[in-house]
Structure formats: structure tokens, C-alpha cells
């Protein structure tokens, strides 16, 4: 088994995850007498709040993802390792991981920051994943791009009107920020970008349906902004099926149980899953090794200083952390990663006094609906419509990771919002239809044969 250098000094800090929490933790150790190892199964930091814009052709992969080695290139005490963490030995202070091709790896640590994030939850119906991809990774966004743009191409060549209508119907499960933003972009894509680019279909006939078990979309934004979002979506023509629980999904649509308990079938060429998250299996391994408690989603419960009871050397940050019902948003991840690193620096530098408990500073929430429409909630400031849209632009420009990403994103948005143009529409035909190669011929039905009496 391969093993990273097990040196004694300086102090070894292992950070699991290159998302917002892991990145902000690693950055906080600059000029500190520690050796930091960032372990992630991907080689890039991903700006997840804009995944839906990559999925719908506004932004490219390079505008929302930046190589970790590039971001941390000036941090001489930080090393990046491409591997997937699978287990721990908390007594020996070891992290077990797998390099690509399954080669095992051991990484020793003095302090551990676990910021591995969460994954999509299908609420016990993992069989839905084949037909309804979620949106948590760059690969997910590219899969959705294939499904969305591929659906219009499939509609273009469909001879049967019913089949054409099915391909022009999109169903999204979940009315949180991701679901609302993705629904708005699909509608905008159909009614603006593609409206004059097809000869045999009218993209304006596109139906976008959103299913959610709650009573209003964007419920976390409060009743006032939630109602405004619902009104904006309805005016756009997006169908809101609130109080609906999806009970079945297949290659041709879904079934949903409405508020009255009736199950209704909805044909749709594309079903996308934007509801719920759950902790990865790594959280179970950490809980098993440390005796830590987990919440209903499998996230690790931590103390006020983000450490595990009985294990002050282990901190949990970001979406994987469960504390005071804090939401799984980028701002929480950034602040918890930064705090966990500074707590360790406080010990390393032997500063007097105890570290204060973690305190979250709410920077607000924002959701994009369509061009000129967004909702923003920042403490007492609540805005929707065009003002909300401008605030949304400012917030996302501020948090994009690098200058190059900010600059190119602004230019891309200027073109996309002013000229109805989406330049990132390239996609492959792989799995634009659930289940495999779209070009593989279907087997011909067996001919009926007349039966002869025996």
C-alpha cells in the first residue's frame, strides 16, 4: 500500500474535499507552520451554484470549475492528491484512500478536516437515478445538457405528434433553488435561444413542470419571496405541481401523488431530480470510527467548535456538517472551512485563550428565475424582479473563484442576456435517452403468425 511521507514536522493537516469548505480551509493555512494535504476525487474546485448555467449552455465547464492545483499554486505548504477517501483509522490517525485504478493509499495526519460534501438523495428510490439525473457534479451538469438539448433534437425528428409533445415536456422534481433555477433556464432556452432554430417543431410549445411536496417554491426564502417566485414562474408558463410526491419514474415520464392522494401519470421526455441530499458512505465510516452521531440525512453532528466529541483533532465542515440546522449552502461551507483551519492555527501558534465557538454570519440567499427575474434575501433586504436580478449578478460575480472566471462569466452573461445566445451548447449523444446508445437500433417486433388448428 502506498503511503505519503510520514514526517514528524511540521504539523500535518489533511483536508478531505476540494469544495468551498476544503478550499477555504486550505487557503487559511497560508504562511502557517503546517503541511496541508488536500484530498479530492476530482482535480478541480467546482462553483456549484452555477451548475445549472453550465447544464443549459450559458457557461462553459471552465467558467465554473478551476483546477485545484491552479488555485493553490502559490500555497507552498499545500499539496493536492487525486484520490477517493474510503475509511479512517482514528487511533493511528490514518486516512485510507484509493488512487485512480483502485491503488490503495495511506495518508497520516495530526489534524483532519472532513469536508467531503453531500450527494443527491432519491429518498430510498435509487432506481430513479437512471431516468432522472441529479445535479451535484460537473459530470451531472454535462449529462443534463445532453438530455435537455437532445430532447429538442429528438422532437425535431419525431413523426408522431404525441411523441413530439413528450420530448418537449420537461419534469423537474424539487422546487428549491436548484429546481427553480433549472426550470427557468429550460423555459428561457426554449422561448428565446431556440425559438428560430428548428424547422419542424415550435420550441414555444415546450412544457416545464415542477413537482414538490411543499406548498410553495423556494420555501426557504420566506413566504413573501416564495409567493413572488411562484407568481413569476406561473406568468412564465411553468407548471407548479405543489403538494405532489413523485412515486415512480421511467424512461417515458413519471407518476405523482397529488394533495388529494390521487396518483396521476405525466408523460415527459426528460425528468430531472433536484430534490434532497444525503451524506456519502464516508460519513458512515467516520461515525463508525469515532462514535459520532448523524442526523436524518447522514450528516455528522459536531460540537460548537466543529469537532467531534472525544476527537478534538477531527473537524467536520461544509455540507457534511450538522450544527444548529444550518443550511447546506456555499456561505456555510466557506465559513466553517475557514473557522476549522483557524482553530488549528490557534493551537499550532499557541495563542493564549480558548477559541470562540463557531458563529455563522448569514450572508443571505439568492435564486435566479429568468433574465431580469431573481429573488434575493440578505438579512432585512429582500428583493425580487429586476432589482433582485442585479443583486444576484453581484453576489455571484463576487464569489466566483478566480479573476479569469469572473471576467469571462461577465462577458458571457452580457452576450447571453442581450443577444439570446448560448455558446456552450455542444453535447455528445451518449445517454441523451436513458439506458444507453441512442443510435442503437431497436429490435423489430416479431410478426404475428396465423395459428393453424391442431
Description:
Helices cover 31% and strands 25% of the residues. It is α/β, with parallel strands linked by helices. A six-stranded mixed beta sheet has the order 6-3-2-10-22-21, covered by helices on one side. It has a four-stranded mixed beta sheet with strand order 1-9-8-7.
Q: Top keywords for this entry?
A:
454 residues; alpha/beta; single chain; 12 helices; 4-stranded mixed sheet
Q: What is the count of β-strands?
A: 26
- State the share of residues found in helices, binned by percent: 25-40%
State which percent range the strand residues make up: 25-35%
Strand order in the sheet with the most strands: 6-3-2-10-22-21
In round numbers, the mean pLDDT is 87
Helix-strand makeup class: alpha/beta
Distance linking N and C termini: 70 Å
Contiguous runs where pLDDT drops below 50 for at least 5 residues: 449-454
Radius of gyration, in angstroms, nearest whole number: 24 Å
What is the overall shape? globular
